[in-house]
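User: Hello, can you help with two protein structures?

Assistant: Certainly.
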Amino acid sequence: MNFWEYLGNRHQQLLTDAYQHASAVFQCMVLATLVGVLIGVVTYRSDWAGNLATTATSTVLTIPSLAMIGLLIPVVGLGVPPTVITLTLYGLLPIVRNAIVGLRGVDPALVDAARGIGMSRPLRLMRVELPLAWPPILTGIRVSTQMLMGIAAIAAYASGPGLGNEIFRGLASLGSKNALNQVLAGTLGIIVLALLFDAAYVLIGRLTIPRGIRV
């Protein structure tokens, strides 16, 4: 059976796995974005706090993803929980770092002007600082998403959802007639999803970033 025949015979399962893969990455990116931006907001005013946040989140990336999932299985069990925790933690660094850089890069004169017209600190953050810091934050989200697309495949080790199951099944049956097709289908599916997500972020950027800031 060639690759195209395999896709034709397995398209329903592949679409299901692709949907689960995309859904897991999307939900974890939402969590990572909320947590990462919050960490950035709390720490960007202090050099030591910002460095601590960046160092802590970068330390997570030094842990092999397979080891991370393996360590979580005895604590939270198999399936979705270790997948969500692992992906969320791995997605933090680019978002935290870019949030801190973006917020620190806001022109102080604009913040002073907002203060001068009576804006409170939370209002300045929401109406002035975060909108101006949004371009680098969005870049961090894009980078995190591309990372998590690949890392999510490892979730199959813990019976997690996604295209990693197709890859692991192929690797477990190397030498059989469909082993290569399974690995190739899972890998290409992840690449396609990554490209689709990135295209969506480009569109979001065009819709949410004013032309003057983009230039």
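That covers the first. Now for the second protein you mentioned:
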Amino acid sequence: MARGNTRQRIQDVALELFAEQGYEKTSLREISERLEVTKAALYYHFKTKEEILISLFRDLTRPIDELIAWAGEQPRTLETKQEILRRYHVALTGAAPLFRFMQENQATVRDLSIGETFKERMVTLTRLIQEPDFAMADRVRCISALFTMHAGMFFMQHVEGDPEEKRDAVLEVAVDLVTRAHQGPARG
């Protein structure tokens, strides 16, 4: 469902067009035509495609930044780490169109500043769900939990089944990986 204000409508339409024909092949003119507004009206909000993309990235990743801030204030317990995964799952679901864009436009993302900040977020999240004294296999489990959630967004769409059931299964596997890591031999 399209969001209300003009700025959000521009972001939504731009992301649709980026997904349909690729970031590089989409022009501001095409975005303004799809919106049925003048290019001047579009320029009032955004001067470039890059500005639109960066604004989209900021808006859709704000919940992830809020999650990182919240997690940094919590005790480093298994329950906290499970809750981090649950909240990350919700944030990922909300930002699904942007993550699809990132997957399909990796070169563009790499060239823009958003690629670096996304990598930093992932490194921070992996630190928040594991402990420095974990055995290597348990550290891999924790990192794999996050990437299970990412892979679930992209690859589970090709698996038969109810979308909600698939999302729940992805979260269950991610939580299970972190839980298992916390039950490793050093902490048994």
